[in-house]
Design a protein that fits this description.
By secondary structure, this protein is an alpha+beta fold. It has 18 helices and 14 strands.
Length: about 425
């Protein structure tokens, strides 16, 4: 009999000291279901859950939308412009055919195109607007997917034969021009006369109207055959103003500066897309980091709600804690009970926010269109945001970082209240009972 009692005692002792035992889980979940007189504690727990859920969901949505912005804008900008631009220091690039052939031999280079660029005033009977004329060969223009794949009217076939231009859709609409109409181009760099420099004015028929999906480009770009551009801007048949270069991976563009410079030859300067658009993408990165810090405060406030709720729960359950301690519960067991109670709120709120954020991101364009129709207004104007749709790209690494940060804050928030519960003296708690 004595041996049986000793064996039972040892078994109970092992069960009582086992961390995160079923007893601790049962008691923790019981504390989450507060009775009527503990309703205020339950309300705080509910607000904590909602706060963490909204914080995680908002962070995932905002970071995904800003990732989508960067990827879409980068795709539009680099789809129409090269990853690298080769220009002369003080003059145009002569003997460009030899330089283009030399650059094409560089490993990793996928596209090389000679260009003649210039600022002009494009006008018609209905008005005028500033524009960027880009002289380019037909084969190179067709290789630009955003342009060749976005032809709304006309065709690029026979573009090199001259006598016509391709114009952006928004520029065509602002000037009231259609396919076959003439657009008048005025350049300030004209012929020198005794009375000063006379502007150069010529008219060209519109052979194609394109739309790349980025309002800034659709409202300002005009493509002209290379030979016509050389004649219009007086560069000569053997010279261009720039050579455009594209590589396989735009993020590795710095590694190509030296080999492309050597292939292009002396007296030429190589610019990367990062240098040409540095201020724009730096502003996007700063905005992204600031938004992350601001929205993290939502998670911090929700974590503080967990702290306050648990402290009130510990104060309210002081007598229960004292009884548990006198019955043999260890300090670690009491601490784990309240740790599970607080962590359950954080974990469940994080998981709910994770699901809500992903569902929102996957349906964000449909939700935008629904809200626009409901409110009768355009919530995402292409003239302001440059893009015609609201992008959202979910990156698993960032999502896991948000979820991990939320779980970390939720766990840390439970440590002090749990330690305070474990430090409660049973004698003091039951002194006046």
């Amino acid at each position: 009999m004595q041996e049986a009692e000793n064996g039972m005692g040892e078994a109970l002792k092992k069960q009582a000291t086992a961390p995160f035992s079923p007893f601790e889980w049962l008691l923790s979940l019981r504390y989450l279901r507060a009775r009527r007189r503990e309703g205020f504690i339950s309300v705080i727990a509910g607000f904590s859950f909602v706060g963490i859920m909204l914080g995680v969901a908002t962070l995932i949505i905002v970071m995904s939308v800003m990732n989508g912005f960067r990827i879409e804008l980068l795709g539009k900008i680099l789809g129409l412009n090269g990853h690298m631009m080769v220009r002369g220091y003080v003059s145009d690039i002569s003997d460009f055919d030899e330089r283009v052939a030399s650059i094409r031999q560089v490993d990793g280079v996928t596209y090389v195109s000679p260009l003649v660029e210039g600022q002009v005033m494009a006008s018609s009977a209905n008005g005028g607007s500033g524009a960027l004329v880009r002289g380019i060969r037909e084969e190179d223009l067709k290789a630009l997917g955003p342009v060749s794949g976005g032809i709304l009217a006309g065709s690029l076939d026979g573009f090199d034969e001259g006598g016509g231009v391709a114009i952006g859709s928004r520029l065509a609409r602002s000037l009231g021009l259609r396919l076959g109409d003439n657009v008048t181009l005025l350049s300030p760099r004209g012929a020198a006369t005794p009375f000063g420099t006379a502007p150069r004015v010529r008219s060209y028929p519109i052979k194609a109207v394109f739309e790349v999906g980025m309002s800034e480009y659709d409202a300002s770009f005009i493509f002209m055959p290379l030979a016509d551009a050389q004649s219009y801007f007086k560069t000569g048949e053997g010279a261009v103003t720039a050579i455009e270069v594209k590589i396989e991976n735009p993020d590795e563009v710095r590694d190509f500066i030296l080999p492309v410079s050597q292939a292009a030859g002396p007296s030429l300067q190589v610019y990367t897309w990062q240098q040409l658009n540095q201020s724009f993408f730096s502003a996007l990165q700063v905005e992204r980091n600031v938004m992350f810090l601001i929205l993290t405060l939502i998670l911090l406030v929700a974590s503080l709600n967990i702290v306050s709720g648990l402290i009130m729960l510990v104060k309210d359950k002081g007598r229960d804690i004292a009884v548990l301690r006198t019955m043999g519960a260890s300090r670690g067991s009491v601490m784990r009970v309240f740790f599970i109670t607080g962590a359950s709120i954080g974990v469940s709120g994080t998981l709910a926010g994770f699901v809500l954020g992903l569902v929102f991101c996957l349906n964000i364009e449909n939700l935008r269109q629904g809200l626009s129709n409901l409110l009768g207004t355009e919530l995402f104007s292409p003239e302001i945001y440059f893009l015609s749709r609201l992008p959202a790209v979910v990156e698993p690494g960032e999502v896991m970082a948000v979820v991990g940060m939320s779980l970390f804050l939720s766990v840390v928030a439970t440590l002090y209240p749990s330690w305070r519960a474990a430090s409660l003296d049973p004698v003091e708690a039951l002194r006046y009972e």
